[in-house]
Design a protein that fits this description.
367 residues, alpha/beta, five-stranded mixed β-sheet, 19 helices, 5 strands, 8% strand
């Protein structure tokens, strides 16, 4: 088989991206979710954020995708009282906890501007098409020198659609995922795993974030900590654990499958966390140290990578006793198998039968 069949090609990579973007499902709104509209000033949003009433997910701070220029133009729009699109927030009526569903970048920019603590000084971009009084100035300077403009931003009222729901209900959380997915259709939309990071936040989510910081994982995937990855590594670990411990329940809808696993183990016990962490580290260590001789993994499709992980994890006890030559021969057999050819993968990335066939073949090869 030629090398072009072994390495991930651009077309397959694009197909995987499209599959993830379109891997949605038709959720009928639960009849006990209530949607209503309200108006909130920008000052209200800052107050709610500071009082921990509005969760914009601090983890997203490292994933803010709006440039300084885009954030500056939003503040200029508020100064000029231009219309701002409606925000969408979910509200747990039991705990009064709120999540930002649509409008994260706008709310983060507003909070960044209005939070004038000395440690949070922010210099706006110098642009020719914005108010000269704020162009290139810091938020602290604007508040002290142009208080009327600062107050105008504080007092600007924004329309918000609120979804009143119950975060403890699985049906409600699945519906919120769908809403996240449908509303984030712009150029800076959230990835599926960024959405999960928000609505399924808990001990298991924390484990995923710790896993991608594991030394051998970083070396295996040659991870650049300075590069924004939009939680793609966390999703890779989630796929590995979900298929390793729950592949028999895969129905052909990848997003739902991963959502349900995160929901089930959202606040996982110490015992389950230890089990997940153990199999993850042993698998990563064996692939990196013994199969690849401490070399990075070549760029493979996500489908091939997850099959490699699952095949190794299922047979980890026996594989840890074997030497490099045997292990590398299994790895080569996996990559050369027709199920993992570019053409075969293109025909059924998420289809139930094909996914399970790939996983079972990997388990067989490494077994």
């Amino acid at each position: 088989m030629s090398n072009e069949h072994l390495e991930l090609d651009e077309e397959l990579e694009k197909l995987e991206e499209i599959q993830e973007e379109t891997d949605d499902f038709n959720e009928v709104p639960p009849n006990d979710i209530v949607a209503f509209n309200e108006l909130r000033s920008c000052a209200d949003l800052l107050r709610m954020y500071n009082d921990n009433q509005l969760d914009i997910q601090p983890d997203f701070q490292r994933e803010i995708v709006w440039s300084n220029t885009m954030q500056t133009r939003l503040i200029d729009s508020l100064v000029k009282q231009l219309p701002i699109p409606s925000l969408c927030i979910s509200l747990d009526y039991k705990t009064q906890e709120r999540f930002v569903i649509d409008g994260l970048q706008r709310i983060a920019s507003i909070i960044k501007f209005l939070d004038v603590e000395p440690t949070n000084e922010w210099k706006l971009s110098r642009l020719s098409d914005i108010d000269t009084r704020i162009s290139g100035k810091t938020n602290i300077t604007i508040k002290s020198k142009y208080k009327d403009l600062f107050d105008k931003v504080q007092n600007t009222v924004l329309p918000i659609t609120v979804l009143r729901c119950d975060y403890s209900k699985k049906s409600h959380m699945h519906y919120l995922f769908t809403i996240f997915h449908r509303l984030n259709t712009g150029g800076s939309k959230l990835s599926n795993q960024e959405i999960r990071n928000c609505i399924f936040n808990g001990t298991f989510n924390t484990l995923l974030k710790m896993s991608v910081e594991y030394e051998n994982y970083i070396k295996l995937f040659n991870v650049n900590p300075e590069k924004i990855d939009r939680f793609s590594n966390e999703e890779m670990v989630l796929r590995f654990l979900s298929f390793t411990f729950n592949k028999e329940n895969y129905s052909g809808q990848l997003a739902r499958f991963l959502n349900e696993f995160m929901d089930k183990f959202q606040n996982a016990s110490e015992e389950n966390l230890a089990k997940f962490d153990n199999i993850f580290k042993r698998t990563i260590d064996l692939i990196y140290r013994k199969i690849l001789n401490s070399s990075p993994l070549p760029k493979l499709s996500k489908a091939t990578t997850e099959a490699l992980f699952v095949g190794v994890a299922y047979n980890i006890d026996d594989l840890e006793k074997k030497e490099h030559n045997d292990l590398h021969s299994y790895y080569t057999a996996l990559r050369n198998h027709e199920l993992f050819s570019v053409e075969n993968l293109k025909e059924g990335l998420a289809q139930k039968e094909r996914v399970l066939n790939r996983l079972d073949k990997s388990i067989e090869i490494f077994g």
